[in-house]
Structure formats: structure tokens, C-alpha cells
Request: fold
Amino acid sequence: MKLAVLDLVPVVEGGSVSRALADAAALARCAEEHGYHRYWVAEHHGMAGIVGGATAVVLAHVGQATRTIRIGAGGIMLPNHNPLVIAEQFGTLDALFPGRIDLGLGRAPGADQRITRALRKDVGRAADDFPADVVELQAQFAGDPRVPLQANPGLGARPELWILGSSLFGAQLAAMLGLPYAFASHFAPDQLDAALALYRERFQPSATLAAPYVMAAINVMAADSDDEAVLLASSMDQAFVRLRSGTPGQLPPPVAGYRDSLPAPARAMLDHMRQVSAIGSPQTVAERLAAFRARTGADELIVAGATFDPAMRRRSLALTMAAVREAVG
Reply:
């Protein structure tokens, strides 16, 4: 089972941006040491508890701290940017870390409506241009003479392009362009099965990919026991509930019995949005990962999660990979 890591670069309560960035590098090194295939950072803006907004800069930092693991964006929210600028950023990363760079592309803003004013652009309209911007980005890397201004760095760079999605739109676009597809089922599970079926059904081979390639995201927290894992995961549960209630903040410490303390509507919302999860002992996690892979037929799984104590996330990665390898035999 091929595994990858998704990191939001969380800031814990009482922590700092500097500490979060140091922890991101340590997490990537841990993932590399234990055999994870890639490490991705997601672009979010205006959130006190998430500091991956300057995604290319974070990846440069992580690249210097690692040697072999693929590193990339999971993803860049392209409507926020000009394709030329992204080509320059990821062309630079490709030159610094050749053969290791992924560029996952999404069309969500990565923030609330304030992003429209902050970026001084119509993000909603830019989202409609997303397919054309993806094609323009491909043309920048390929050196297409129809591009009026060539990105340099960027020309000749070969980051691995992905389309990200949580609906049928991204699945259709990835299939049409013949690109690998990653589904954000760790927080948007509803259209997972339909999107993967659509992607595989409509896939058109391309110069870069001969057959469909799917990665699906799942929340993972492994610990010595089921109870300990549930306790550790309560930090990200709290953060998600706060986000959905309009009061986001830094990642809080774990709280025993957190889900049971929630009002019924909040608990139902959390249970629904977090249904794609593998939280428990190593055996529990391995069994749930295997079941999720069997359900999706995914070529790769990317594990999401966060802990108040960053060392516990690193331990979770180690326990998860050891359990999966033991289960495979």
C-alpha cells in the first residue's frame, strides 16, 4: 500500500509560526524515514492555526530538510494566482529538488469570502477560468510558443501535476487532461465514489499518464490503543468544529470524551464529515486503511491529521507504516 502525508502546518495553542515550520520539516523527515511516498502542504489563508499559505516557501524549507521523499502542494488554489507566478515558483522548486516536486491544483479559494478583497480579484470568476489556467500552466512548463511571456524558471521544469477535488468537477477535468486525481475525502466524503467512478470512466491517456491514477485522503491517527488515538484526534475534531462554527483558532490540546460532550447536531456534523477515518491502535488503523483502499481501489492513500504534541503525529506515521507493512506481510 503506497502512503503519502498531508500536512496543514498547524500552529498549536501557545505555539508560534517558527515552531510550526520546524515541526513541518521534522514531520517530512519522519515520513521519509518510514517510507512514505510523498509529503504535501495545503494552501490556506487567514487562519491563525494553519501556516501553509506561502506553500512554495514552505516546500523550499521542507526540501532542504529532506533528501528523497517527493514534496508538493496539496494543493495550490490556482484561482488565487496567476499561472505565470506558479510556473516560476514550482520551476524554482523543480530546479532545487529535481524529480521530487508535485503540483496539486485546486479551484477552491482556500479561505472565506475575505480572500476576494484581500487578493483584489474576483476569485469566483477566476474559478470559472480554472481549466484554462491549468492548460496555461502546462504550456508554461512545456515552453509552448503561444505563451506570450515564458516563465523562467519554469521552462522545461517537470513537476508532477495533479488535479485535486471534492466534487465531480475535478474528476472530469483530471480525466479530460489525462492527469492524476486526488480526492479530499478526509473532509468532503459525499461524492467520493461517484467522482472516482467518473474519473476512471472518462479518463483520456496523455503524454504524462497512460492510465487513471487515484489518490484518496483519509484521516489517520495511530496510537498504542484505540482510546489513546481517539484522545489525540480530539484536537483536530475541536479545530474542525470551531472552523465550521465560524470561530477558527490555533490547534487546541486534546480533551477526553470530546465528541460525547457535543450537542447532537454538532456531533452528527462531525461524524459525517470525518467518516473517512482510521483512528485507533495500529491493528485498527491497518484494517481501516485496507478497507478504504478496497472500497476506492486507490493507487495511493494520503493520510491527514494533526496532534497538539507534534511528536505524537510523527509516532502515528511510524506506527501506521509499520502496521500496514506487517498486514501486507
About this structure: The beta strands are 3-7, 38-41, 70-77, 101-106, 160-165, 181-183, 214-222, 277-280, 300-304. The two ends are 11 Å apart (CA to CA).
